Amino acid sequence: MSFDADVTACAAIVEKGDPERFAAAMASPVAARKVLFPLYAFNVEVTRAPWVTQEAMIAEMRLQWWRDALEEIAQGGQVRRHEVVTPLSRFLTAESAAWLDRLVAARRWDIYKDPFEDEVHFETYLTDTTASLMLAGLEALGDTPNADMEKAVKTLGYSTGLSRFLCAVPALEEHGRVPLLDGRREAVADLARDAVSRCPPRTTLRSLIDRAAYPAVTEAFLAQTILGQVAKAPQSVADGTIAVAPLKRSILLWRWS
Fold first, then answer.
1. Residue 52 has what DSSP assignment?
2. Is residue 43 within 8 Å of residue 66, measured between CB atoms?
3. What single string gives the DSSP state of each residue in 81-128?
């Protein structure tokens, strides 16, 4: 199965901007990649938007551009021509576009230097920026999330989002952000342990998710390993030394896919 120019461009965006999700997509069936590459390219572009300018107003406008594009898709009318938006318009429904809109809205936190308000705000940010992408992918791959599935995927998304966020802490601090509510080592370790304990097992996910749609959650393949490292060595967050050996990464991806 060949990709058109837009999906090929999306794959290149993901390969450069999000190697972990690129690996997860490449481990998926070719048919699933036609959905995952545009979704993940969308996420790369939205994630990047708050960081390409120091002007808050311009960053807000960049995020609003994506929200407007999603609204066009949801309404089912004419959609702007764009190498990411165009392939998204082929499979997003109003419901899955709404999930992605939550993701874009949550990224407004990245524009400013205010800390998270409280634990609820922090968890909501991580869930909306990660689980929303998973849920949109599940629907795009033919599975309609029910209450049990949505709950499990939101928990998985939070854990996956946290693992990625902890890896990004040094860069966030370098840019003047206050990423953690409590940066003490013991607090960081507790945060990681709690996320591991809440993360649904793969067996549970496989029982809730149709086989054809499962690639939408394969991106979580490193989450528990990274969180486990942080629980044992919380200083690795501040030091920026969280790492998974290439061979172990491959084994984990094979187990998840």
1. S
2. no
3. --TTHHHHTTT--HHHHHHHHHHHHHGGGGGS-PPPSSHHHHHHHHHH
Judge whether residue 135 has pLDDT over 90: yes
Which candidate, 149, 183, 146, 154, places its Cα nearest to that of 166?
Answer: 183
Instruction: Give the predicted TM-score (pTM) of the model.
Output: 0.96
**If residue 173 lies in a helix (H) or strand (E), which one and from where to where?**
helix 147-174
Long-range contacts (CB closer than 8 Å, 24 or more residues apart) made by 201-209 = 202/255, 202/256, 204/152, 205/152, 205/153, 205/156, 208/148, 208/149, 208/152, 209/138, 209/143, 209/149
Q: What is the mean pLDDT of residues 2-31?
A: 95
Contact 155, 204 (CB under 8 A): no
CATH of the domain at 145: 1.10.600.10
For residue 13, give the nearest of 22, 4, 1, 26 by alpha carbon.
22
- Does residue 82 come out as left (phi exceeding 0), alpha (psi in the -120 to 50 range) or beta? beta
Distance CA(129)–CA(93), nearest Å, equals 19
Helix axes 147-174 and 185-198, enclosed angle (nearest 10): 160
Is the confidence at residue 1, as pLDDT, over 70? no
Let me know: does 153 contact 134? Beta carbons within 8 Å: yes
Q: What is the reported pLDDT for 22?
A: 98
Residues spanned by the domain of 172: 5-256
Q: CB under 8 Å to 17, separation ≥6 — which residues?
A: 41, 44, 47, 48
What is the total count of domains within the chain? 1
